[in-house]
């Protein structure tokens, strides 16, 4: 494609994809695309997006960002990127002081003077923070210094697990990532992949890995660990991790098949499996604190029937010290491998390898990183974006690259490409079978290697 045709091509991608989005909304029980001013959820908000709709949205996001970067002066675009830190800091203020909860009391609008009284914030500073967020489409200023919630800010209500996720990213993650350059410049830490030599360790002063901090540091680390556990429920919704519930053929496993959710936290995916596939027997394994939180707080509220029917078992595990419950049909690991450097990943998968039976499958749900350069289609692990978009959809799939840097800052780990997963499996004695495309994430399937045929 010539340089002259790129702007028109990007505009066409946006136009064509917008028509697809409108068509999908037109088929719903509320046949319209909601306005940003709406505060009531749309029926499609809680549904798993169809692949065509999800792809159209990613194209729109990527093409709009690429079009803006193409037509604006480079200095204009780069300076705006420098200043992106202020949005996340303002979000932290909104979450910390529960401003969305306060605004919910007055759906018609609340003046900053009243917001200040209810939150303890100095009113003019609160107004300036809210105005920046409203300009970024979070909250709405209905008249001067009078703000209301909107379609995005309602996601920040303290009752929504996304609020816990937002506090995680805008608190310990952001404060750690600020130190990334300083850590990278350190002669020892900059080249280390140790989970104890990270920007998080430098920020917190804590000498052990992040997840030990979440379990053992009392009260601060334990409080943040519980918050992180709730936030992962919000992360699962935002990233449509529940696609695995519908895209993988769980029914084919048969009645009474056992699924071990290894390192599953409070059991976000297990909860959804329990509701969608009551024929399965589930085992949730994680560190003791998370298992107690799941057993005593989350599951009795979210899925008491699974407890009553004994379809769920809660078993603590340190997957570096022991193997999961043996002989299960499926061992499912979501967002586990990305938490650790290669050597530890091999240790985790080797522990699973010791537990599995010949019929078992190992399913690893993670982001599958794509390069930003275009490759022949038959060499791409998943379908590439249409030209002239970046082949990895650019901003349309930026979350996986943001998370890759999150892993670097907090754990000295990373998101990986498909060849990386294949090599890790082989090192642990597992054979790669298939990559299931779940939309935003992928599902890497392993099994025991096939026995070599006899040549007698």
UniProtKB/TrEMBL annotation:
Q: Does the keyword Protein biosynthesis apply?
A: no
One of the protein's GO biological processes: methylation
* Positions in coiled-coil regions: none
A GO molecular function term, named singly, is: O-methyltransferase activity
> What range(s) does the O-methyltransferase C-terminal domain occupy?
253-429
Please give the superkingdom of this protein's source.
Answer: Eukaryota
Q: Per UniProt, which keywords does this protein have?
A: Methyltransferase, S-adenosyl-L-methionine, Transferase
Q: Where is the O-methyltransferase dimerisation domain?
A: 84-158
Under PANTHER family, the record lists: O-METHYLTRANSFERASE CICE, PUTATIVE (AFU_ORTHOLOGUE AFUA_4G14580)-RELATED
Listed name of the protein: Uncharacterized protein
Origin species: Hebeloma cylindrosporum
What does the record give as the organism's lineage? Eukaryota, Fungi, Dikarya, Basidiomycota, Agaricomycotina
